[in-house]
Amino acid sequence: MNLLDGILAHNKQFVENKEYEKFQTSKFPNKRLVVVSCMDTRLVELLPKAMDVANGDVKIVKTAGAIVSHPFGSIMRSILVAVYELGADEVCVVGHYDCGMASLEAQNTLKKMKDRGVSQESLDMLNYAGVDFEKFLRGFDCVEDSVKHSVELIRKHPLLPRDIPVHGLVIDPKSGRLDVMVNGYQAELSSTV
After folding, report:
1. Which one in 35, 105, 120, 165 has a CA-CA gap of 20 to 30 Å to 182?
2. Which three-class secondary structure state does DSSP give residue 15?
3. How far apart are CA 79 and CA 17, in angstroms?
């Protein structure tokens, strides 16, 4: 049985047994928080437990490295939708130690793409069209600085209300310990003084 068939077989039983009932909640986050988190597999259950977040409490936006790389990209759009349409009153960016985006190098990723069948012609065409692979496929050197950068990009966004606190945390994927990089309440106070 392939992966998709296994998922669908499980889902059939899940629905028939009404296991979904214990997950029913509103589309509005109970804690009025949107979390931007890394897509790392170690955080799937650990991060919500470490943050005391239950089903229905927050909106979670997953992206490689918890990086908000473009002020008008899909991550920022999701944050704005969470704030304006779904009632989120705070934003929290959560990176993690031992992240795969740390020191990601474009040339290594491009080589892997070629090894998997992406043609040099396709890469050349995208490069000609203006795709800067060094920028597009760049990771970060320091997770703490990366989180701070994403927090600043969100906090200073022209479409985000000034009264929305934007926090920055880094989680240890081994212990679940959260380290504060930016306390959004303090940052909000210092920007109004």
Report:
1. 105
2. helix
3. 34
The response to whether 167 counts as a known ligand-binding position is: no
Judge whether 90 and 184 are in contact, CB under 8 Å: yes
Structure tokens at 110: 């491009």
pTM of the model: 0.91
Backbone angles phi, psi at 12, to 5 degrees: -60, -45
Pairing mode, strands 166-171 and 178-182: antiparallel
Cβ-based burial of 9 (10 A; exposed 0-12, middle 13-18, buried ≥19): exposed
Residue in this structure with the two tokens 């934003």, named with its chain if needed: 91
**Burial class of 68 by CB neighbour count within 10 A (0 to 12, 13 to 18, 19+):** buried
Task: Find tokens 């009025």 and name the residue.
Answer: 32
Q: What would the pLDDT profile of 67-92 be if each residue is shown by its tens digit?
A: 999 999 999 999 999 999 999 999 99
Domain extents in the chain? 28-102+141-193, 105-138
- Please state which CATH class domain 28-102+141-193 belongs to: alpha beta
CA neighbours within 13 Å on the CB side: how many for 73?
12
| Residue 92 assigned ligand-binding role | no
User: Is 99 annotated as a binding-site member?
Assistant: yes
